[in-house]
Amino acid sequence: MKEWSNTSEESRSSGNSPHHPSTVFVSRAFIRFLNLAALTCALSVLATLTDAHSSPSLSHGDPRTSPQDDAPCEICFYGPDNIAFDADENAYVTDGDQSARFRVLKISASGKKLMDWHAFMVAPNRRNGPEGIAVSNQNEIFVTDGGALQVIKFSAHGRPMMRIGDKAPVFQDLGHVAVDKAGNIFVAEGGVNRIQQFSPRGKRLTVWQKPKGHGENEWNMPEGIGLQPNGNIVVEDAGNQRVLIVNANGDTVSSIDLKHLTPHFSAGLAVDAIGNIYVADDKLHSVQMFDPKGSWIRNIANGDHDLLFRSGPTSISVGPHDILYAADGRTVVKFTVDGELLGRWR
């Protein structure tokens, strides 16, 4: 296993003790006691009230509109986050309410919910639920599970096929995940300034870990990651408000300074097939686009006629045919690199 690190072995291994929350069982008698009709009615009212408070109104003189703004939800997200696509153009979306409801949704290219997977642990004092998600060339779906501190490989039908971290603790603070053409898995751990590479079978191959700071060989919360065709790793160095392009030796090739964007808060990144970089910013309500070397190309934001983002974007993904997808509140927005709104999943 290769390792590039500026920290001691002791600092890398601290805080790695596994924690297994106790299992909670609900009796069948209690379930039978519930009145299904009353429960369904109560949940319907609650969902309506929650949606009304969580979605900003467009009725205050804003002439811009987007499709389905006032339509009832069809997918009914809890809180969509990161998105990945398979070879059949299906989307996989991590979805959670930051409390106890977590799942991965499989959605068709037309926006129809196909499946939802509930396979994620809830543990105290952790960022619970699925967060990072990536799809391999073999249509295998990799998801980071913050509660279990594992990376789970699913089949396209939602069957767990492998878990990295189930036999021995290897993660401390899971963030995003990426998969290269050979099936190697890259996992970011922002809290410990570390990125790990694993083989397709889950064997750890490489560790990149940097001391906390803002220097050239320092990181501060590497959260989002993407892979360029030449093998470089694009890192969202969130705490330093910058994006780094890192080579296979762990050396910084290029740096994109985002501090001039004020107010700025990066909320994930994506890389397209030729290496262009997209950075979501939920403070400026925009997506910044850069070329493969880090030179700025354009700002994708709300236009004169189309309202792309109401509260986000809180993620960004490149889908089939170079169409962009971003989480925005309790919706997912579909748009072009020129800022043309194509649709909104609710």
- Spatial strand sequence of the major β-sheet: 1-13-12-11-10
Secondary structure tally: strands: 25
Largest sheet geometry: 5 strands, mixed
Beta fraction: 35-45%
Order of helices and strands: EHHHEEEEEEEEEEEEEEEEEEEEEEEE
Q: Strand pairing plus helix content: what structural class?
A: mainly beta
Query: What is the helical fraction, as a range of percent?
Result: under 10%
- Which residues form runs of ≥5 with pLDDT under 50? 6-68
Q: What is the distance, rounded to the nearest whole angstrom, between the alpha carbons of the first and last residues? A: 44 Å
- Number of H/I helices: 3
Overall pLDDT, averaged?
Answer: 83
Rg of Cα set: 20 Å
Overall geometry: globular
What is the element layout, followed by pairings?
Elements: E1 2-5, H1 9-13, H2 28-33, H3 36-54, E2 80-85, E3 91-96, E4 102-107, E5 113-117, E6 130-135, E7 141-145, E8 150-154, E9 160-164, E10 177-179, E11 185-189, E12 194-198, E13 204-209, E14 222-227, E15 233-237, E16 242-246, E17 252-257, E18 266-271, E19 277-281, E20 286-290, E21 296-301, E22 317-318, E23 324-328, E24 331-335, E25 341-345
Parallel strand pairs: 1-13
Antiparallel strand pairs: 2-3, 3-4, 4-5, 6-7, 7-8, 8-9, 10-11, 11-12, 12-13, 14-15, 15-16, 16-17, 18-19, 19-20, 20-21, 22-23, 23-24, 24-25
Distinctive features:
single chain; five-stranded mixed beta sheet; 37% strand; mainly beta; 346 residues; four-stranded antiparallel beta sheet; 25 strands; 3 helices
What can you see in these coordinates?
The structure is a single chain. The chain is mostly beta strands and 346 residues long. The protein has a five-stranded mixed β-sheet with strand order 1-13-12-11-10, with no helix packed on it. The protein has a four-stranded antiparallel β-sheet with strand order 2-3-4-5, with no helix packed on it. Strands 6-7-8-9 form a four-stranded antiparallel β-sheet, with no helix packed on it. It is globular, with a radius of gyration of 20 Å.
